[in-house]
Every structure is written in structure tokens, then in C-alpha cells.
Amino acid sequence: MAESDRYKGRRIVVTGADGFIGSHLVESLAAAGADVTALAFYNAFDKNGWLDELSDDALGSVRISRGDVRDFSFMNRLVAGHDIVFHLAALIGIPHSYAAPQSYVDTNVTGTLNVLEAARVNGVGRVVHTSTSEVYGTALTLPIAESHPLQGQSPYSASKIAADKMAEAYALSFDLPVVILRPFNTYGPRQSERAVIPTIVRQALDPACTAIKLGDLTTTRDFNYVSDTVAAFLAIGRAPEIEFGAPYNTGTGQAVSVADVLDRVRDLTGTNKPIESEAARVRPERSEVRTLLADPARLTAATGWRAEVSLDEGLDHVVAWWRKRLTDGSVRRFSNYAT
Questions:
Q1: pLDDT for 83-111, tens place per residue?
Q2: Cα–Cα distance between 255 and 77 in angstroms, integer?
Q3: How far apart are CA 129 and CA 121, in angstroms?
Q4: pLDDT tens column, 67-90
Q5: In this predicted structure, what is the pLDDT of residue 116?
Q6: Residue (of 242, 150, 261) closest to 195 by Cα position
Q7: Which domains does the chain have, with CATH numbers?
Q8: Of 115, 171, 232, 240, which has the highest C-beta tally within 10 A?
Q9: Is beta strand 220-221 parallel, antiparallel or unpaired with respect to 62-67?
Q10: DSSP code of residue 190
């Protein structure tokens, strides 16, 4: 059965729909014929995050709801009557987690608890909980399979470990059909400049930036283009042979260093700007995750999913997106995103 047929007419909730991956997932679900309720974080500015960038056609079958996963009563009402919940809402900025760890517990742990409980109370058919490769910490064995030990090397990763374990507990304690999707580093259009690829591309292209300022260039990551990550969500959201309460990695199975990404972006953009190291962009020594390299075999075996977009192809898309935004003036004035 084609992926589009598997979601046609399904009632779906996407939390974190206003974010980078969430907005792309909403687009794909709507294109597949799903009836989507897209949860955007409530604010007083009449903004729906990246959902405001979607076309009217893309939003034709999407109902945008503003709220907060930390409010159980709200989540209970929101989830009622839906078939599947894709839970992506989270605080994800690692540097800020050093300054405000309580807020990460409130959103990532308590927020996840609220989503799981609302799904349990309302008999939701499946919950896909979003984890992160950061829960593995610095690799003890490579490539990283789901059996790798979990290491809380930042308050952010610790909060996501706790959220993953809460999902596991709901599967084991209440038979909740929840599965844990664990994406490795996703990149693409709409990603925050707090992530390494957009900050490199932005600084390479922006005339206001006289240098490219970065932290540690020696760390290596398994970079996944956003369309591949979204395809993994769609695959696991309807796959029949899934172990509930268990994690599944998404990744290319290839790792590259930040220095290599920098060289590729400089070639694509034709920039010769100097590279400057900024101490504020470097994590505490024992908190830095040196290498992330996925073993996605478990997800592939269960769903047939494989990454399809090469790093060079994905970087081409990101550079083109940033060129357009810098040209049409839709990007705010450059600022330092180190913290």
C-alpha cells in the first residue's frame, strides 16, 4: 500500500507542528490526504511558527490549534477523536539547557507525560514519540544501535532520556501503542540557526558576516535531510510490525565531521571568508558528544525505510533556500546564535 493511501482520511495530531521537522511532517501528511490537527505553541504575536510559511493548498486539510503540551486538560481535549499522535513538541536547544534545565524537564518530560496520558484516556491508535540521537552521548561502539547505553551528557539529553523512558513505561504499564522514533541529526530548510548546518550556510552567504564563526570542527555527525526524516515518521506511524515502547533509529549510516560540512558549504557558496573559533559555541568538555553514527537496520527491517538524499544534494537544497531568503529580505538581521 502506498504511503499516501495509508494516511488518507486518518485523523492526526502533530505536536510541535510549528517547528522545523513538524512543519514538514504536516505538509506531507496533508498531501497524503490526512485530516491534520497541528499544535503550535501559544503566543501573543498571532504567529504559528513555520506553519505560516505553508501554502494555502498545503493547509487546506489542516486545523491549527495553539496551546501547550504542559497543560494536560488542553491536551486531553485536543487528542480526543484522533487516530494517531505524532509527538514532536520539545525544547531542543542544547546550550540553553545548561542555563534553564527546569524548563526542559517541564516541556520534554511533563509535556510528554501529558501527551501519553491523553492518548491513553482517549484510546488513540498509535503515538509516535520523537527521541534524539543525543540520548546516546559520545559513542561507546559504532555504529550506534538502539541497544547502546543511554548517557545524559546535557540537561537536554537527560530530559529526552526521561521522556523516552516514560513512553516505554506507558507501553509496558498500560499497553499504550507508543513507538519511539530516534532521529539522528536532521537538517534542511526552516531549521534554526542554532544548528550547525544552517549557521554555516547563513554566515557563508550573508554579506553582513565577515567571518564564519563556529565551535568544535572535529565532531562527527550522521546528517539526515528533512524529507528522509519525515519519511521515517510516515513509515513508522502506520507500519504493522512495530514493537511498542521500543526505539528505532533513523540515520544514513554515514558520519562526516563539521569541518567536512564546512568545506562542502564553502565550495557550494564560493566563499573565502575566514573561519573563527568562538569559545561560546563549544560545549563543556565532558558534555560534548564526539561522534554520532546511526545503525538504522532495525527501522529498515520493520518498515523498509532507507535514507535517500545524499549530503551534497541536501546541502544544495539548504543553500538555495538560504539564498532566496537572504535575497527577498525574509531573514532578520544577523545575530550571534551561540547561546
A1: 999 999 999 988 899 999 999 999 999 99
A2: 42
A3: 17
A4: 999 999 999 999 999 999 999 999
A5: 98
A6: 261
A7: 3-187+225-251 (3.40.50.720)
A8: 115
A9: unpaired
A10: T
